Amino acid sequence: MYEARDKAMKTTGSRDPMAWLDYGPVWLRRDYWESLCHRWATGPWQERSQVAKRNRSTHQEKNVHTSGSVSYATHSQKLHHELERAPTFCKLFDRTHKQKGTNDYHYKKKRDYRRIIFRR
């Protein structure tokens, strides 16, 4: 849905959701798109959106779910600070693929992938 809104915004050159009415995605019924545009244009939704934007920009590391995952560069910088040297690829991979507080990888496939990478 983000991509559909973003495309409509870029196509119209406007941040006003009411200007997007005719630029909905082909995979969504027109009446649904129009109701979403009306909702996005309301005051309460706009206020919540602004609050969420401020929170995401202020607390980037705490809002992983809403702002995406933490980048390799950020993990690398943190590890560099913790280790007082540049982290190895193995350490960086573990930091980004293991669950916090455990030694378990998020998914079996990633564990197998790590074995393949570090087999040499």
UniProtKB/TrEMBL annotation:
Pfam families: Transposase_24
Biased composition (Polar residues): 65-76
Stretches for region Disordered: 47-77
Entry protein name: Uncharacterized protein
